[in-house]
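Hi C.,

You asked whether I'd gotten around to modeling the 402-residue construct. I have! Everything is below, sequence then structure, no commentary in between.
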Amino acid sequence: MIHAHQWRLTAVLTAAALFVSGCSKPPAPPPPHMAEVTVVRPIQREVLEWDEYIGHMEAPETVNVTSRVSGFVMEAPFTEGVIVQKGDVLFVIDDRLFKATLGSARAEVAKAQSQADQAKVHLNRYASVRGTKAISDDDYDSAKAAYDQTLALLAAAKAAEETARLNLEWTRVTAPITGRISRKMVTVGNQINGGTGQTTVLTTLMSVDPMYCYAAVPARAQLKSPDLAIHKAGMRCFVQLENETGFPHEGVVDFLDNAVDSNTGTIQLRAVFPNPRGLFTPGLFARMRLPAGPKYQALLVPDVAVGSNQDERVLMIVADGDVVQARPVKLGPLFGSLRAIASGLEPNERVIVNGLQMAMPGMKVHPTEEPIRGVPSDLTSHETPATQETPASQPAPTETRH
C-alpha cells in the first residue's frame, strides 16, 4: 500500500509541474546577427581625364635619293641602314665624260673672251674718231653691235661652263639631309637615269630626330577639349610603344588639320617627339595620350563598390542608424581602381566596399570604416589611367549586386 501511495504522489507532482510549465511564456529567440561590412568615405581630388588614340610614326623629312645626271655607277661608299650626315657621298658616277665636257666649255669661254677683247679694241678705236670724217656713223654702229654680240657669246659660253661644272659636281651624289639610309637599290656597274623624267631611285633617306606621330582624333574630342579645339601651342601629349607602359615619352602637338573628314568623323592631329636615341622608327604604331579636357575636382570611390540595378548604377550606402540604402549614382571616368562619381553621392557618406553580398537595402549592418588605400599621389599625371569612353558606353560590372 505504501508503494501505491508513493506512485500516486509522484504522478500528481509530475502533472502539476507540466501544468505550471504550460502556463509560462516560451524563451525569446536570440537577437539576429548583423552583417559585418567595410565602408569608406569618398575622397575629393583634382583629376584630369586622358584620351588615348592609336597613332603612327612618320619622319619629318623623307627623300628618294636620285642622281641629277645619267651614267654608270662607279662607287656606293656607304653602309646600308646607318645614320648618314648631310653632305656625305652616297654614290659616285663615272665622271670622265663630264670632265671632258667641262674642258671644252672652258675653251669656249676663252675663245669668246678673246673675241670680246678684240671687238672692244675695234670699238674703242672707232669711238676715238667718232664725229670726224674718218669713219661714218654706220661703221661705229657696226663695231658697237659686233662688240655686244661677242659679249653675248661670252655669257653663253660661261653659262655652258657652269652647266658642265655642275654636271661634273653632280656625279658625286651626296646625302641631302641627315638621317637613316635604306638599302642600295642600285649597285656598282649599273647605268642610271638622272635629271628629269624617269629618274632612277638609288636609295631612300629619312630623318630620325625629331619624329612625328599622326593620329585620327574624333571630332567630339576636339569639341570636348578647349585646348585641342583652338590648337593651343605646345599642348602636351605622351606616347608609349607596344612593349612599354606608363606613356614615358613626352611631346607637343604642333599641327591640327583644317577640316574634319566627313567619312570618318575624325580630324588629323600631329605631335612631335624628340628621338635622340633613334627609338622611334617611321611606320611604327604607338598609343598616344592627350588631355581630354581641363582639370576638375571629383569624388572618388573604389570601383569595386559600384553595382548595377537594371540600367542604373548604384552604391550601397550605410545611412543613419547603420541602415543600408541603395543609392543610384551617375558615374564619371575610371582612374586606376578609383571611380569618379559625377552625381548622387555626398562627400561624408559611407560607401560599402566589402560585404556587399550580405548588405540588403533596409537592413541594419555593423560597419567598420577604413581609409581608401593605394591612391596615386597625382591624379592629373599622364601615367594615371582614365577611361576614354563616356560613362553611358562603359560596360557594367560583371557581378550584379542588389
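If it helps when you're writing up: Helices lie at 2-23, 96-128, 137-169, 219-224, 226-229.

Thanks,
B.
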